[in-house]
Specification:
It is built from eleven helices and six strands. With 299 residues, the chain is α+β, with helices and mostly antiparallel strands. Among the domains are: 81 residues, no CATH class; 95 residues, Chitinase A, domain 3. The strands form two sheets. The chain has a four-stranded antiparallel sheet, with helices on both faces. It has a two-stranded antiparallel ribbon with strand order 1-2. The longest helix has 27 residues.
Length: 299
């Protein structure tokens, strides 16, 4: 016969009771016609589906002691029976908590089922995909840059490179940016990842070209060399389909709720907040009084 350990009694009452909602939700999902009674406490039954739900929770935290789990459930049932002897369920705060919990479950379940009920057509997903990819960068760039503090420094560097100096070598010697030690290399990037002035300059450049004028940003003055550009690799429709379906469903849900709102009889009874107006004379008197108090403190 199964015995209840004292330590488990305390653990169960203080800890297990906090997670019983999770246990019973699993129980409700897994309960079958073959569910059996695994214990009785003063005549009240504990079902195998409840134990299975609790064991599933324990296993997530690395525990797998079936006997201890049964003891936990027995201890919790004892505590529950004692709790039922009190007036807890009749207390206003308890009734409100139960009502709030019921409302939340009702709303969450209804919303989930309603969103999943919308018929999302392939044409809608394709249209959403086309809209999404048009906002993505169609080009990627590979560039180097030299960052300096003044426009005159940048202009001097542009002339130096035009006269035959190696861009990467000059970047290592003179660039104040973190990429300087790497010859100013920024690798491959999308324009939107750069500050606007820098991105706009790169977009206008040809492969192998060095910027003819310094490009000013909040970081300083840049001399840019475009090494190469290529078409950006866009995500496929299939890879975005689950995400796009969720977005479309959410939009349909918002539209559905707006229609419900239009047809509802809504009366707002919230009283308007009264605006407190202070006359100019009162403000002046208040300032005089404050200055007077400050003077008294100083003395």
């Amino acid at each position: 016969m199964l015995t209840i350990k004292k330590s488990l009694l305390v653990t169960s009452i203080l800890g297990l009771s906090l997670s019983m909602a999770g246990i019973f939700s699993v129980q409700a999902e897994e309960k079958t016609d073959t569910d059996v009674v695994i214990a009785t406490v003063n005549g009240d039954k504990i079902m195998k589906s409840t134990l299975d739900g609790y064991m599933a929770m324990l296993k997530k935290s690395g525990k797998d002691d079936r006997e201890a789990a049964v003891s936990d459930l027995v201890a919790t049932e004892i505590a529950l029976q004692e709790a039922k002897k009190t007036d807890i369920l009749e207390r206003p705060e308890t009734k409100k908590a139960i009502s709030d919990y019921t409302r939340n479950i009702l709303l969450k379940t209804w919303t989930k089922e309603k969103v999943e009920s919308f018929d999302i057509k392939d044409e809608e997903i394709k249209a959403a995909y086309d809209e999404r990819v048009t906002k993505l960068a169609s080009k990627e760039f590979n560039a180097r840059h030299i960052l300096v503090k003044t426009e005159d420094e940048a202009k001097a560097i542009i002339k130096e490179i035009a006269d035959g100096a190696d861009f990467a070598k000059v970047a290592k010697e003179k660039s104040t940016g973190p990429s300087g030690s790497n010859g100013g290399s920024l690798g491959w990037f999308k324009a939107q990842t750069m500050v606007p002035a820098f991105a706009n300059a790169v977009k206008e450049m040809a492969k192998g070209e060095v910027s003819k004028e310094p490009v000013k940003t909040q970081f300083g003055y840049h001399v840019i060399k475009l090494e190469d550009s290529r078409d950006a690799k866009l995500p496929t429709l299939e890879s975005l389909k689950p995400q796009l379906t969720r977005v479309i469903s959410q939009k349909k849900m918002l539209a559905y709720m707006e229609d419900l709102k239009k047809g509802a009889d809504i009366k707002i009874t919230l009283p308007e907040e009264k605006k407190v107006e202070i006359k100019v004379e009162e403000k002046a008197e208040k300032k005089v009084e404050e200055k007077k108090k400050e003077k008294e403190k100083a003395e």
